[in-house]
Specification:
By secondary structure, the protein is mainly α. The chain has a domain of about 150 residues: Growth Hormone, Chain: A, CATH 1.20.1250.
Amino acid sequence: PSAEMITLMWSFIVSIYSIGGLLGSSSAGYLSVRFGRKKAMLFANIPALLGAALMGFSRLCGSFEMIIAGRLFSGVCGGKFAFLPVYVGEISPKKLRGFINVTSSVFLALGKTVARILGLRELLGSQSLWPMLMASCGFPALVQLVALPFFPESPPYLLVQKGDQEGCKKAIRQLWGEGQHQGEIDDIMKEKATMKNTKILSVLELVREPAFRWQLYMIVILTATIQLCGINAV
């Protein structure tokens, strides 16, 4: 193929991750409510492992289409993990919730840094090792797939969505240890009572709602300007 075609092909391989992210994030909310935070996160590891396998064996099979499919599945996984901060926040004690929520962004940046280092030609970015580099994204998914079943479900999800008060108490004790946690349970009950009187808006209804217009402008501007920082180019 010509140099222009090769450039187009690799540009498509890079950008299709975002398409997968859009597909994954569009179903993240439904899955987290339908199956629970923990099970939804477990399901999200399946496209991650599938994508890693496709990219890892692409050179052996002589197929660049496998890289494209692998990048798409990796994007789907990345989009579905939009509910990861939700789970992390819900299993954290109230006094540590803000700090714990920030760790998601910290480890996201750390992961990008580690990937950048591993991609150096002196490490895994060489001509012989690049399939291993592309397949390495499956390692965190494999670790989570093994470790996550030992974690309890989100206490607010059990109480608010499922109405399982005993399951909620058991999850809280497993997460925070034995002790008096009635205050946290009362806070979750207040949240449940508030949600009964709150209408969940669709994306279209949110855009049309004048009361949220300025908040929406602010979020769009912040999200758009983040793209100008250069991280996507890296």
